[in-house]
Design brief:
Blueprint (H helix, E strand, L loop, with lengths): L7 E4 L5 H4 L3 H8 L11 H13 L7 E4 L9
Parallel strand pairs: 1-2
């Protein structure tokens, strides 16, 4: 009744400053599990999704995965 929409994002592996502080072999293991594209996401891609969700007034009550279809490999 107040016109509040609620959506959430479930990001996967993204190339961030925190990620860059870790070992590169972790990135290789993670990106090998992806389909297309086989790379980490970018901050610009998250920003683009946020802008779309804000601009699409019909989208509500969703949890949107942004992960390039990557799944964490088993240990």
């Amino acid at each position: 009744r107040h016109g509040v929409r609620v959506n959430c994002f479930a990001p996967g592996a993204f190339d961030t400053p925190m990620r860059r502080s870790g070992p590169d072999n972790v990135v290789e293991r993670i990106t090998q599990t992806g389909q297309v594209p086989r790379r980490m996401g970018t901050i610009e891609e998250i920003a683009g999704l946020c802008a779309h969700v804000i601009g699409n007034s019909y989208l509500n009550g969703e949890c949107i995965r942004l992960d390039g279809a990557m799944r964490m490999p088993p240990r």
